[in-house]
Specification:
The complex is a heterodimer of chains A (about 500) and B (about 190). Chain A is built from seven helices and 29 strands. With about 500 residues, chain A is α+β, with helices and mostly antiparallel strands. In chain A, the strands form six sheets. In chain A, strands 2, 7, 8, 9, 10, 13, 14 and 21 form an eight-stranded antiparallel sheet that branches. In chain A, strands 15-16-19-18-17 form a five-stranded antiparallel sheet, with no helix packed on it. In chain A, strand 8 (about 160) and strand 9 (about 165-180) form a beta hairpin. The longest helix of chain A has about 40 residues, at about 325-365. The termini of chain A are far apart. Residues about 35-80 of chain A have low confidence and may be disordered. Chain B is mainly alpha-helical. Helices cover about 70% and strands about 5% of the residues of chain B. Chain B contains nine helices and two strands. The chains are: A alpha+beta (about 500), B mainly alpha (about 190). At the A-B interface, strand 1, helix 1, helix 2, strand 15 and strand 17 of A face strand 1, helix 1, helix 2, helix 3 and strand 2 of B. Strand 1 of chain A pairs parallel with strand 2 of chain B.
Chain lengths: ~500, ~190
């Protein structure tokens, strides 16, 4: 080794300068390269496993083709995949709205949504970048009950297995998302939200699936998907303190390194210093001149204060301090505070409205034919009670014209069989339908309109016909949706 | 006026950390929590021993990659995980210095050197500053590491012991001996 170089009084780097080099993705990628040479890589073994699995599926498929109820779609474990998908609804203004709650995540919460779903949310369940978050969290919830809901939110409802295109029939589907300071949160790995939701249809042969961010469904074999008719519980709304307004540094301050896991309330803030509260105690500036062996931050009795322990082997000094900010850090802290205060106000309003929510829940529970489904939501995103339906019925090549006989250019064809809570989709102008059912069909035209036809249009198709031209009714998406609701009975 | 320092982990924190480590062994993506928590500490440790910010950034990344690769070998002994990470950083730095891939640099402030001179009981400072820096160059790497941790990074003996894998008392004795060696080297110059 060469003789070391000595730098005296080198310019110091700020934490911000050091942190700009932080890049876990790059570290993770390098780690992947170090630990996975190609013959050991995921692609290699994944490919090999894929070939083996496909061979097994093909063998099973040809030896014993399952009925609808027996089909269990082979999917992956969701623990390693991202489960929060960004859907692109066909018409943004008609997308299904979210019900928004603000919850206090430092305690257990029992929530009821307007449609009667019960959410049992354990305290300290949310994390951002793998660090648990505390205080107020915004929870966004929506339920998709009908084929029209599936259409308007553009949730993929098909699954291709061994060359067969299955369509999911849903017995209830929900989406749950959580945010803090506009950051998308995740659930902590060993915790779950217990969901009890009213189901639009009865039946015990529904499985639980979760959608990943690539639009693939993942089967959850260990989750319970049975009906549950327990009494409605009382909501639990833990009290919450108002957020503490940031303070500009003006006195004697300390720069203390603290662990975000121990002080998650400070996690969102950058450039935090701790100022001695000199209204409570006189501060001796000579304390700055002592070389302390350890400096420890502790929570104090009030939300505003912390205790700072300065220690040497011979002495310990305890100071009452509060967080302060300087310059740009202060402005950023105020932005975060304003966001948190808005959440706090919403939370307070919700507390007052909870009693109304109970009666709404009871009504919905009754309206749901007494049929509730329960499961443990181990991650956020879209969860669905489904059974896969194999394509059945008469095959037909179709064309669509308006009432002047002009061909209507379009892409996907959407169809609902009123006996099923499913949305069938077809491409290439080929559909398959059950002549004995009542069917409703529609397309989105290239002009952004919806063209649809009623169940009557199917009744005029000759029984052995291979081709058919539908004369469609063209309407704006808004008007067409109202008509489709009526036709489907949603 | 600002004062900075590190903190020690409580028993509860150390136990919570063990859970995180086990999770990261099962799923390396979960190492992100550990990375997030210790990035700054390790960066500072590395930066103290190299010449530039860029060198420190590169080496810090390598330290965390090494830590992820070797995480399965980590044995929980009731110490903060940071002490193991520091040792990974120390080994990585020593290896890189040995291969002359990076220049070993000692970074100190004038007042820290004065404090060091005081400790060596050399009453000729500040004129002798140059002799001190020359003597530091001649110290063996292990002794220099102890001096550096104690005087330039202001670490407690407890922390030095945890990083250097020795008892607190041993850290105290060895640092004292390193100081004595430095004193002898200064006298020779």
């Amino acid at each position: 080794m060469e003789t070391p170089k000595i730098n005296i009084d080198r310019e110091e780097l700020s934490d911000e300068q050091m942190l700009k080099h932080k890049d876990f993705d790059q570290v993770f990628q390098t780690y992947g390269k170090v630990t996975n040479p190609f013959y050991q890589s995921f692609k290699f073994w994944g490919g090999l496993a894929g070939i083996t699995i496909m061979a097994t599926i093909v063998t099973l498929y040809f030896s014993n083709k399952p009925s609808n109820a027996e089909v269990t779609i082979a999917t992956n474990d969701t623990s390693a995949v991202s489960t929060q998908i960004a859907l692109t609804p066909p018409f943004e203004t008609l997308d299904l709205p979210y019900e928004v709650f603000v919850i206090n995540t430092s305690a257990d919460t029992l929530l009821f949504t307007a449609d009667g779903t019960q959410l049992e949310i354990p305290g300290e369940i949310f994390a951002y970048n793998n660090v648990p978050v505390t205080n107020l969290v915004q929870l966004k919830y929506r339920q998709f009950n009908t084929p029209l809901d599936f259409f308007l939110s553009n949730i993929p409802m098909t699954y291709d297995s061994a060359g067969t295109n299955y369509t999911f029939e849903s017995a209830g589907m929900i989406e749950l998302l959580a945010y803090q300071n506009k950051n998308k949160l995740e659930l902590i790995s060993n915790k779950a939200i217990e969901v009890q939701m009213p189901s639009p249809i009865e039946g015990t042969d529904f499985n639980l699936y979760q959608l990943d961010d690539q639009g693939n469904w993942h089967y959850h074999p260990n989750d319970h998907a049975e009906a549950n008719n327990d009494d409605v519980q009382q909501p639990v709304v833990p009290p919450v303190d108002a957020p503490v307004k940031p303070i500009k540094a003006s006195g004697h301050i300390f720069n203390v390194e603290f662990d975000s896991l121990q002080f998650p309330e400070l996690m969102a803030y950058k450039g935090v210093f701790f100022e001695v509260d000199e209204t409570e105690q006189a501060f001796d500036p000579d304390l700055y001149n002592i070389s302390w062996h350890a400096m420890e931050l502790q929570h104090a009795e009030t939300a505003k204060h912390y205790l700072l322990l300065l220690s040497r082997p011979d002495t310990t000094v305890k100071l009452q301090v509060y967080p302060v900010y300087e310059g740009a850090s202060y402005n950023k802290a105020m932005e975060i505070y304003n966001e948190q205060y808005r959440a706090y106000e919403v939370y307070q309003q919700q507390v007052e409205q909870r009693s109304d929510a109970i009666s709404a829940t009871q009504q919905h529970v009754q309206a749901a034919f007494g049929n509730m489904r329960t499961f443990s939501s181990t991650s956020l995103g879209i969860w669905n009670f489904d059974r896969p339906l194999a394509p059945k019925g008469q095959k037909l090549e179709v064309q669509f014209v308006d009432n002047h006989g002009n061909t209507i250019p379009h892409t996907t064809i959407y169809m609902v069989d009123k006996q099923r809570n499913a949305l069938f989709t077809f491409n290439d102008n080929k559909i398959q339908y059950k002549p004995t059912s009542e069917n409703v069909l529609w397309i989105i035209t290239t002009n952004g309109e919806i063209a649809f036809c009623s169940p009557e249009a199917f009744k005029s198709i000759p029984s052995k016909s291979k081709q058919h031209t539908f004369t469609m009714v063209l309407m704006s998406p808004n008007m067409a949706t109202n008509n489709l609701k009526h036709l489907i009975g949603a | 006026m600002i004062s900075t320092h590190k903190y020690h982990a409580t028993r509860e924190q150390i136990q919570a950390e063990e859970v995180q480590i086990k999770a990261a062994i099962k799923d390396p993506k979960r190492f992100a929590t550990i990375y997030e928590k210790y990035y700054l500490q390790i960066f500072k440790y590395v930066y103290q021993r190299v010449n530039s910010e860029e060198d420190a950034a590169d080496i810090t990344s390598q330290v965390f990659v090494k830590a992820m690769v070797n995480l399965k070998k980590y044995q929980f002994r009731g110490l903060p995980f940071s002490s193991w990470l520091y040792r990974v950083a120390q080994n990585e730095l020593n290896q890189l210095f040995r291969k002359n891939k990076y220049k070993r640099t000692i970074n100190a402030k004038t007042e820290q050197l004065h404090e060091l001179i005081e400790e060596t009981e050399d009453d000729r400072y500040p004129e002798q500053m140059q002799q001190v820096t020359k003597a530091m160059r001649a110290l063996n790497p292990n002794d220099m590491e102890l001096i550096e941790m104690r005087f330039f990074e202001q670490r407690s003996f407890k922390e030095i012991g945890e990083i250097a894998d020795m008892t607190e008392n041993n850290a105290k004795v060895k640092t004292f001996r390193a100081l004595q060696k430095l004193k002898r080297l200064i006298a020779k110059k």
